[in-house]
C-alpha cells in the first residue's frame, strides 16, 4: 500500500476510482489503531495512517491529505466532536469525509456527531467488510466532489477569460487603432445616445471640433510615419483635456478630432479648448519655421425644436473654420443664433 492521492491531482488527472483511499485514524489507543491497520491490510487501494495524539490531528491531516478520516470520539484532552468541528472549519479538511467511531450505538450521540459535521457513524470495532465498503464509498464521493469543484472552477475561469476577451473585443471596436481615442463609429453611437438623453432632460452639452494645422504640409515634409506620431501626441493632449469620466474624445477623421463635454457650458468648454491648444504648442513639434499647432471650434448646444444633432456638429465645425481663417492656433466659440 504505497502512495496517496493528492486532491488537486485527483481533480485533473483521472477518475476518482483510479486513486487509492488515504485513511487517517485519530485514536489514542494503539491497540485500536493496530486492529484497524490489520483490517485494512491486503487491500491494494487502501493506504492507512494513524495518529494517537489528538492534539496533532490537524497537523497530521495536512501532511497525510486523507480521503477519509476515522475519528474516535472519546480521547484524553479533547472531545472527538470538537475535532470534527475543527476539520469542518479548516480549508484543507472542510470537505474530507469523517467517519466517527464510538463505543456506543446511541441515537443522541449519533445526532451530535452529524450536527458537528460527521459524514458517517460506526461502532468500533466495525465489521471489516462494512468498514472497507464505507471507506471506499466516502473516498469515491469525496474525490468526485473534488473533481466537480475543479471542473466548476475551470468553467468559471473559462467564463471569466471569455468575458475579458469579449470586453477587450468590444473595447477594440470602439477605439481608433492609431490614437487610442474613440473611433468615429463609437462617437456616432455615443453622441446619438447622449443627444436623446439631453432631449429628455433639457441638459446642455458642448462640442469641441479640433484640426491639426497644415497637417498635409507636415506629412509631405516629414513623411506619413512622422505624421502618425504627431497624431498620437496630439491625441494624448486631447485625452488629458477631456479627463472626466463622461467626457468623450474621438478621432473624427484624418487629422480631425472631436470632444463631447456633457453638462458643460460654452465658457467652460472654451477654457478646456484653450488648454488643449496650448498643450499642443507646448509639445514644440518642429513644423516649417515654427511649431506644429491645432485650431478648435466650440459649440454649446441643448436639443430643442428646430435644432438637430447634425446642425450642432456643424456649428462646432463652422467655429473651427473661423479659427482657421483667423490665423490658426486658436479657439473660436460658436454663436448658436447665427451658426
UniProtKB/TrEMBL annotation:
Gene Ontology biological process terms from the UniProt entry: cell adhesion involved in single-species biofilm formation; negative regulation of bacterial-type flagellum-dependent cell motility; phosphorelay signal transduction system
Gene Ontology CC annotations of this record: plasma membrane
UniProt-recorded name of the protein: diguanylate cyclase
Positions carrying 4-aspartylphosphate: 72
EC number: 2.7.7.65
CDD domains, alphabetized: GGDEF
Domain GGDEF: 203-336
Record keywords, A-Z: Phosphoprotein
Domain of life according to the entry: Bacteria
Catalytic activity, as annotated: 2 GTP = 3',3'-c-di-GMP + 2 diphosphate
Response regulatory domain: residues covered: 22-139
GO molecular function, one term: diguanylate cyclase activity
Enzymatic class: transferase
InterPro entries: CheY-like_superfamily (IPR011006), Diguanylate_Cyclase (IPR050469), GGDEF_dom (IPR000160), Nucleotide_cyclase (IPR029787), Rev_trsase/Diguanyl_cyclase (IPR043128), Sig_transdc_resp-reg_receiver (IPR001789)
